[in-house]
């Protein structure tokens, strides 16, 4: 599974990064970016990071 952050939608609130730093990190534009593949043991946390996003910027793809 992979998380994708829509850079046009992200408002840089940091909530997903606080929720799951294993999967989301700050990029040079002060927005969240995915680390790529979601480690198997982080699937629930990655989904929690998506769910906490106030603007629905995160998609998790199989
Ligand atoms: S929670 Fe949403 S708006 Fe906030 S940093 Fe993450 S992707 Fe961006």
Please give the radius of gyration in angstroms. 10 Å
The class by helix and strand makeup works out as alpha+beta
Q: Characterize the largest beta sheet: strand count, sense, and whether it forms a barrel.
A: 2 strands, antiparallel
Q: Say which molecules are bound, naming each kind only once.
A: iron/sulfur cluster
If strands are numbered along the chain, what order do they take across the biggest sheet? 1-4
Spatial gap, N to C terminus: 4 Å
Short description:
With 62 residues, this protein is an alpha+beta fold. It is 24% helix and 23% strand.
If you had to describe this structure to a student in words, what would you say it looks like?
The chain has 62 residues and is α+β, with helices and mostly antiparallel strands. The protein has one domain: 2-Layer Sandwich (Alpha-Beta Plaits), CATH 3.30.70.20. The chain is 24% helix and 23% strand. It is built from 2 helices and 4 strands; from the N terminus they run βαββαβ. The strands form 2 sheets. A two-stranded antiparallel ribbon has the order 1-4. A two-stranded antiparallel ribbon has the order 2-3. A hairpin with a 5-residue loop joins strand 2 and strand 3. The longest helix has 10 residues. The protein is globular and about 30 Å long. The mean pLDDT is 97. Iron/sulfur cluster binds next to helix 1.
